[in-house]
Amino acid sequence: MSPADPLLSVVVPVRNEAPNIAPLVAEIGAALAGVPHEIIYVDDGSSDATAEALAGLRATVPALVVLRHAVSCGQSAAIVTGVRAARGAWIATLDGDGQNDPADIPALWDYAQAHGTPGQPPLMVAGWRVNRRDNQVKRLSSRLANGIRARLLGDATPDTGCGLKLFPRALFLSLPAFDHMHRFLPALVLRQGGRVVSRPVNHRPRLRGQSNYGTLDRLAVGVTDILGVMWLQRRWKRPQLLAAPPASTMASSPASSLAATPE
Fold it and tell me: How far apart are CA 130 and CA 139, in angstroms?
């Protein structure tokens, strides 16, 4: 498929993931061989050989687009950069550590095409890592965080931290952008009047490199972030448009009669 007119843009934010670049790019290309797509990597100020690894693939992977932040601005900023540069009407996000399985993207894509019909609220399909391949501390802390977040924000999403999500580009660009927003995309989509559906996806152990996140630093910023999203929810009401009256009703209304009466 030619990347000239992609239907789907895969946005992958990375920081210091040099050994994972080539394997994951190959997996994405294989998974989406039947879908016109582009692969947008956003290097968030890596200090390892991530930039060199991406540069080495550009000549052999026509669908690959590489963007780079001069300094690290965070995962959410990298996703925003990628989505703004994307040319596809639909976006799939994927963590760059190899733990999300690109083979799950076609199933999410098919679901979105079947259920994201025109005239209905926009749809986000969120991955749900049913069988986590992380250590016990990480699994327990994630379960606790998901429970607190779901209770306070009412997003009805069992695994908002999964990096694998699929949504319309226009929907994402309508959301407020802020640091760590990627952890609250379901709540933000619901706030915007959209729909969120969670679908089971595969989760794999990290085979190469080291995580850029620790358990304590996530918890430290999580409380402030949740309070901020709660503030956003309270400061916005979703407008609901009334259906226009039938043309015959409008024609017989007093206003219409007056307008049609000659002086």
Answer: 11
- Phi/psi of residue 224, nearest 5 degrees: -60, -40
For residue 83, what are the contacts with CB-CB under 8 A and spacing of at least 6?
Answer: 9, 11, 91, 169, 172, 173
With CA atoms as reference, report the closest residue to 123 among 76, 88, 162, 90. 90
Residue 216 pLDDT level (bands cut at 50, 70, 90):
low
**75: Cβ–Cβ under 8 A, 6 or more apart, which residues?**
13, 15, 44, 180, 182
Task: Output the pTM of the full model.
Answer: 0.82
Query: What strand order describes the sheet that includes 8-14?
Result: 64-69, 37-44, 8-14, 90-93, 165-168, 123-129, 195-201
The C-alpha atoms of residue 216 and residue 152 are separated, in whole angstroms, by: 20
Strand 195-201 relative to strand 90-93, pairing: unpaired
140 Cα distance to chain centroid: 24
Q: Backbone phi, then psi, for 158, in 5-degree steps?
A: -70, -20
* Predicted local confidence at residue 252, as pLDDT: 52
Q: Give the fold, CATH level 3, of 8-239.
A: Spore Coat Polysaccharide Biosynthesis Protein SpsA; Chain A (3.90.550)
Identity of the amino acid at 136: Q
Break the chain into its structural domains and give their ranges.
8-239
> Which 3-state string (H, E, C) describes 215-241?
HHHHHHHHHHHHHHHHHHHHCCCCCCC
Q: What is the pLDDT of residues 111-126, one digit of tens each?
A: 999 998 777 899 999 9
Contacts of 228 (CB under 8 A, 6+ apart): 178
- pLDDT category, 227, cuts 50, 70, 90? confident
Q: Does the structure show a pLDDT above 60 at 251?
A: no
